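Task 17 of the worksheet. Students: predict the tertiary structure of the chain below and write it out as structure tokens. Keep your answer in the requested format; marks are given for formatting as well as content.
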Amino acid sequence: MKIGFIGLGRMGYSLACSLLRNKQPVVAFDINTEVTQKIQSQGAVVAGTIADLCQKVDVVLTMLPGPKEVMQVVTMKGGILDSLPAGSIFLDLSTVDVKTVDKLSALSSAKGIVFGDAPVGRLAAHADRGESLFMLGIEQKMRSTVESLLYKMGTTVIYCGEAGAGVRTKLINNLMVLSYCQINSEALVLAKALGLDIERLFQVLTSTTAVNGQLKEKWPEKVLAGDLTPGFNLSLGLKDLTLACQSAKDKNITLAVGEVARESMSQAAESGYSDKDTSSLTDFWATKNGIGFIRL
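Model answer:
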């Protein structure tokens, strides 16, 4: 299959590179010419327009910041719906809301395009190594075809159900992941205020049931090492939490902790942490409480 890849941000670029490393032909498109030149040097063909890309491929993958951007490339004149031939596959890897993914599915079906959603789990560093996890939602008969492609970008594909099930799963996953950011930050700030040795505390927290993947794997590599370069931008984390909280409201479900975590990230974003890693929430709360940065 010839693959079209739209959206070469931090995660998208790494995923596209994994395809290329696995000898998969890739036609790429992004509005950032610097990154398209970079992917071209890795062996991809760069399309001048989305329409041009769609005419050259069998499958289109999109990895974009959010619902607005996905809907734009899908519905704009010369976009995916206008240009992708019937019978082709459109697989969105982005994290969007439930209403958007259901609309994408309906619009694609009306055009004879097979739609699926496969949002990405794990960190950008995992994508760099080709170790991503995908939460796949697509009609059962297309499952094996799409899974074989996803395994060229990652090590784990979990079939969640029909189209739309992937995004629904991802919103719940990120609700938990991003709430951990708040809990981890509060725990570390309190520990420093109580005069504890952070390295010894860390040994305890990662050896009991308090452990979580964010704390054990990410925090030592990012904020506790003083590295706030984004593996997962705080602004994108805020977007995902907002989508999860809105989905809950649509179903009349109360997310008490999720709403608190979302408000915390909103405060951090407004305080200048928007383009930093989600783990920077620890620095935000340390500063807010008049405590110096916490480092291992």
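Marker's comment: Strands lie at 3-6, 26-29, 45-46, 59-62, 89-92, 114-117, 120-121, 132-137, 154-161. The CA atoms of residues 190 and 196 lie 9 Å apart.
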